[in-house]
Specification:
This protein is of the alpha/beta class. 52% of the residues lie in helices and 13% in strands. β4, α4 and β5 form a beta-alpha-beta unit.
Length: 223
């Protein structure tokens, strides 16, 4: 079995050391390098070509967000998982605008971290439960106050989504599945699936990853 190759980027040596020892306990994960600042994270990503870069937001020389933007542009096959103590809504939005594949807080359990690394390595999005709560809270607050303007699809055509469809799309962007969305909106999973199908038809999108990408790129992740 091929192991997932990981680069750790954090400005605290003790944090990197602790993460290294933690990840060594998983047979499918291997740490191939460490970086102590944002610029070093970029250079070592280019040199080592890891599967996943685990990076903190608060980094010397170049922030984790700026480093992520550069890495996603120059090394698009490398997934980025942000591991940080920051948990406000604006940070969440900026991280996903940067192209990171996941956001997990430093108080998460070790199995949660391992799961997050595996998830982003597969090309999927990962949100820790607390981050999802922050995003959902922001999304629902925004959609309850404002009548959103219709987004555009990839061809620039105007798309008319109902208020409920916008709520569902926002929660999809937050990484929630049908059951979780149904619990948040107090509707049945089957109704959620119907809304999801209608949204995808209206947007001419045919798979879940591209639907999430559309939602983030068109501002739903900032609501």
């Amino acid at each position: 079995m091929d192991r997932i190759r990981i680069l750790l980027a954090d400005d605290h040596e003790l944090v990197r050391s602790g993460l290294l020892k933690l990840l060594e306990t998983y047979k499918d994960l291997v740490v191939v390098g460490e970086a102590g600042d944002g610029l070093e994270a970029i250079e070592k990503t280019k040199t080592l070509n890891p599967d996943v870069l685990v990076i903190d937001l608060s980094m010397p020389k170049l922030s984790g967000i700026e480093a992520t933007k550069i890495i996603r542009k120059e090394c698009p096959k490398v997934a980025v998982l942000v591991l940080t103590m920051h948990q406000n809504e604006e940070y969440v939005y900026q991280i996903f605008k940067s192209g990171a594949g996941g956001y997990i807080l430093k108080d998460a359990g070790k199995d949660d971290l391992a799961s997050a690394i595996r998830t982003v390595a597969r090309g999927e999005k990962y949100f820790s439960s607390r981050v999802s709560e922050i995003m959902v809270s922001g999304f629902l607050r925004k959609t309850s106050v404002h009548d959103e303007t219709a987004p555009s699809d990839a061809q620039g055509l105007n798309v008319s989504l109902t208020k409920r469809e916008k709520e569902v799309l926002s929660l999809i962007a937050a990484g929630l599945n049908n059951q979780e969305i149904s619990e948040k909106l107090f509707i049945s999973p089957r109704t959620v699936d119907t809304h999801r199908t209608n949204i995808m038809q209206k947007l001419d999108i045919h798979d879940a990853p591209n639907l999430m990408k559309f939602a983030i790129e068109h501002g739903f992740s900032s609501k």
